[in-house]
Amino acid sequence: MWNQEWAAQAACRGQHPDKLFVRGAEQNKAKQVCGGCPVRTECLAEALDNQIEWGVWGGMTERERRALLRRRPNASWRAVLEAAREQHPDVVVRV
Length: 95
Ligand code: SF4
What we know:
By secondary structure, the chain is mainly α. The chain has helices at residues 26-35, 40-49, 62-71, 77-87. α2 (40-49) packs antiparallel against α4 (77-87).
């Protein structure tokens, strides 16, 4: 089930935004926070569907997200990720 109120359950909630909007090797640290986030899929869909260009969202850097957007420029990422999760509820969605 898609969590419309995902931001309230974000693992990064309460962290300073500067920890997620980092560059280079610091992004790997930011991605570790996302690894245990219960709303990672929703977060990633938000970033992809809104073409958010900066920061780590849903465990992906802006560079990684740009690569996905190039591969499927007209996708509704919420639809893609929601369908994937429904089909494989026990699997962590990795795109
Ligand atoms: S996936 Fe990462 S950036 Fe998104 S809400 Fe969770 S911890 Fe924050």
